[in-house]
Amino acid sequence: MIPVVALVGRPNVGKSTLFNRLTRTRDALVADFPGLTRDRKYGRAEVNGHEFIIIDTGGIDGSENGVETHMAEQSLLAIEEADIVLFLVDARAGLLPADEAIARHLRSRDKSTFLVANKTDGIDADVAVGDFYALGLGEVHPIAASHGRGVTQLIEDALVPFIPQVEPAPALSEEQANAAYWEALEAEAADAAEEAEEEAFDPIGQPIKIAIVGRPNVGKSTLTNRILGEDRVVVYDMPGTTRDSIYIPMERDEREYVLIDTAGVRKRGKVTDTVEKFSVIKTLQAIEDANVVLLVIDARQGISDQDLSLLGFILNSGRSLVVVVNKWDGLSLEVKEQVKDMLDLRLGFVDFARIHFISALHGSGVGNLFESIQEAYESATRRVSTSMLTRIMTMAQDDHQPPMVRGRRVKLKYAHAGGYNPPIVVIHGNQVKDLPDSYKRYLMNYFRRSLNVMGTPIRIQFKEGDNPFAGKRNTLTPNQMRKRKRLLSHLRKAK
């Protein structure tokens, strides 16, 4: 079983820096700003061949109120989940009352706890960590997470109880060594073949990544918790509660998913806080990383220009889309009709996307989302043969011929798949670069109807057919050469 390691401590002691160091990523937001992390963030890490799961948590200082109370609850839940707790303190700031309060809580739990003094770079570590022995948690491990100093030794010490002790194997005879060598070669070849098979994309075996995006305070985290059936992320009636993208694996109906709860995206002119700018970047990265995006809209506020801007980014990224209208409960029939009319008016250009009317708070309509998510994902990853695409293209031409360009009709020759997720159709032909946009849209809609593609954009690329005789001179036969010579001689005499 893979051990779980939780990082806990006061705000701004370097937990997210250590998380990024161990996972070799930049998944956790890091800045010199206390209280940046608000939710539990999970990552997979490996040190010297030993795998473990690491949990980054929000800081606890005992003065929490409002949204910070929920942050502290998330941190305490991480302690209960973990096999090992790394309690981080700031060696530069010294021992503070908040450190003592956390230490009292950890001593009351039956957890393997390691006291870690971070930020020891540039100071005398032995002197700086002396006060922390008063916490009664045993040895103090000095590290510098930003530079990686002392981190590997810390993790090796922490994982000792979880590393199986292997007895040294007895010496082999020469015959046994040769047999073992050939067995190892065969196993390596089998592994290489297996890896090659795994590299072929298998949409059924891959977890579906679902990014939940929208403006601040439209109910993204509430929807995440409703889907999971637990208070996994901090929910508070205040815009900007979620600051980082939280990746949460889950399983539903024997199908694996990864939920991505993201920070709200406001208009660029309103984003002045540095932390919020980082959060917006994380949200846009989550969209590109996802297979299906749930665009959450507040039914009571309607569709804003920012919603349309976010929608444009989703489409440009080629992600599958499901529109979720939240806070549908409590609206009068008249208001509901007005909202539906507004959706038809402003979202008419994404008529391929399913629209769901839900209440994340009460759960109504949430269960139906997964039908549209699976439909969109299957449409985006479906394999279609060249013969099928060419047949559909021919039918489209028969129903509506391409226009004439400079006296010649555009000719479409054949079509084939150019990629998936999003589906890309490549059409080869003559003068295809001169096709008007209206005919390109006609072809795209024709392919969508014929293939029954829902929930995902289709991209069509056109390639000009190569002229096999372009740049080549005709080779004359000996008879043609003699005729050409006589003709040139005759022309010279005529002059």
From TrEMBL:
<dbReference type="InterPro" id="IPR027417">
    <property type="entry name" value="P-loop_NTPase"/>
</dbReference>
<feature type="binding site">
    <location>
        <begin position="326"/>
        <end position="329"/>
    </location>
    <ligand>
        <name>GTP 2</name>
    </ligand>
</feature>
<feature type="binding site">
    <location>
        <begin position="214"/>
        <end position="221"/>
    </location>
    <ligand>
        <name>GTP 2</name>
    </ligand>
</feature>
<dbReference type="InterPro" id="IPR006073">
    <property type="entry name" value="GTP-bd"/>
</dbReference>
<dbReference type="Pfam" id="PF01926">
    <property type="entry name" value="MMR_HSR1"/>
</dbReference>
<feature type="binding site">
    <location>
        <begin position="261"/>
        <end position="265"/>
    </location>
    <ligand>
        <name>GTP 2</name>
    </ligand>
</feature>
<dbReference type="InterPro" id="IPR031166">
    <property type="entry name" value="G_ENGA"/>
</dbReference>
<dbReference type="InterPro" id="IPR005225">
    <property type="entry name" value="Small_GTP-bd"/>
</dbReference>
<feature type="binding site">
    <location>
        <begin position="56"/>
        <end position="60"/>
    </location>
    <ligand>
        <name>GTP 1</name>
    </ligand>
</feature>
<dbReference type="Pfam" id="PF14714">
    <property type="entry name" value="KH_dom-like"/>
</dbReference>
<comment type="function">
    <text>GTPase that plays an essential role in the late steps of ribosome biogenesis.</text>
</comment>
<dbReference type="InterPro" id="IPR016484">
    <property type="entry name" value="GTPase_Der"/>
</dbReference>
<dbReference type="GO" id="GO:0043022">
    <property type="term" value="F:ribosome binding"/>
</dbReference>
<feature type="domain" description="EngA-type G">
    <location>
        <begin position="3"/>
        <end position="166"/>
    </location>
</feature>
<keyword id="KW-0342">GTP-binding</keyword>
<keyword id="KW-0677">Repeat</keyword>
<feature type="binding site">
    <location>
        <begin position="9"/>
        <end position="16"/>
    </location>
    <ligand>
        <name>GTP 1</name>
    </ligand>
</feature>
<keyword id="KW-0690">Ribosome biogenesis</keyword>
<feature type="domain" description="EngA-type G">
    <location>
        <begin position="208"/>
        <end position="381"/>
    </location>
</feature>
<dbReference type="InterPro" id="IPR032859">
    <property type="entry name" value="KH_dom-like"/>
</dbReference>
<comment type="subunit">
    <text>Associates with the 50S ribosomal subunit.</text>
</comment>
<comment type="similarity">
    <text>Belongs to the TRAFAC class TrmE-Era-EngA-EngB-Septin-like GTPase superfamily. EngA (Der) GTPase family.</text>
</comment>
<feature type="binding site">
    <location>
        <begin position="118"/>
        <end position="121"/>
    </location>
    <ligand>
        <name>GTP 1</name>
    </ligand>
</feature>
<keyword id="KW-0547">Nucleotide-binding</keyword>
<dbReference type="GO" id="GO:0042254">
    <property type="term" value="P:ribosome biogenesis"/>
</dbReference>
<protein>
    <recommendedName>
        <fullName>GTPase Der</fullName>
    </recommendedName>
</protein>
<dbReference type="GO" id="GO:0005525">
    <property type="term" value="F:GTP binding"/>
</dbReference>
<dbReference type="InterPro" id="IPR015946">
    <property type="entry name" value="KH_dom-like_a/b"/>
</dbReference>
